[in-house]
Design a protein that fits this description.
alpha+beta
């Protein structure tokens, strides 16, 4: 009887935790014709109502934006796989496109480790940094890429120190129904 009183609260807690963290909360019913993107999840501070500027504009002329606070959107190409303490944002999923590193103000928040593949809207300050060869090697080991490395292994990067990030997982692509051939 004593085990019942000890274990019952544990099972209730675990059941409630599982139900509230269920990954399948937004799974559509079978036969539903369309699937929507997941709602945006906010990390850090709320993002102001300022219209987003194209990330391409910042990357094309970073000196024009250095030290300024911007709101941008882009594709999360990679994210830190250890803590979620940085992500690489690009205008498109294409690896050939230049991207920029996103870090988080005062190391104050992190993003999920599986953030790669999401769409981000963020607000932050633009910085231009020269990374040491050791930092470049570290970031590359976690999935980052650098378009223009120096001969010594260092690299220059455009970085945005974000105060807030909204992540949205895009809706899966619809696949055409395949009928069996006779």
């Amino acid at each position: 009887m004593r085990a019942f009183f000890v274990l019952t609260p544990l099972f209730v807690f675990l059941g409630a935790t599982y139900a509230s963290n269920s990954i399948n909360a937004n799974v559509p019913a079978a036969g539903t014709p369309s699937v929507q993107a997941t709602p945006a999840r906010l990390y850090g501070e709320a993002i102001g109502p300022t219209a987003a500027i194209p990330l391409d504009s910042v990357l094309a002329a970073p000196l024009n934006y250095e030290g300024k606070t911007v709101t941008v959107t882009g594709f999360v190409r990679a994210a830190c796989t250890k803590k979620g303490c940085w992500m690489e944002l690009a205008p498109a999923e294409v690896q050939a496109k230049q991207g920029c590193r996103i870090t988080f103000k005062n190391y104050g928040f992190f993003v999920p480790l599986d953030s790669a593949g999401t769409i981000a809207r963020l607000e932050g300050q633009v910085e231009l940094k020269k990374l040491t060869p050791a930092a470049v090697t570290h970031y590359e080991a976690e999935g980052a890429s650098f378009a223009h490395k120096e001969a010594d292994g260092s690299a220059h990067e455009v970085r945005i120190v974000a105060t807030g990030v909204e992540l949205t997982r895009p809706a899966p692509l619809k696949r055409a129904a395949v009928s069996p051939s006779n």
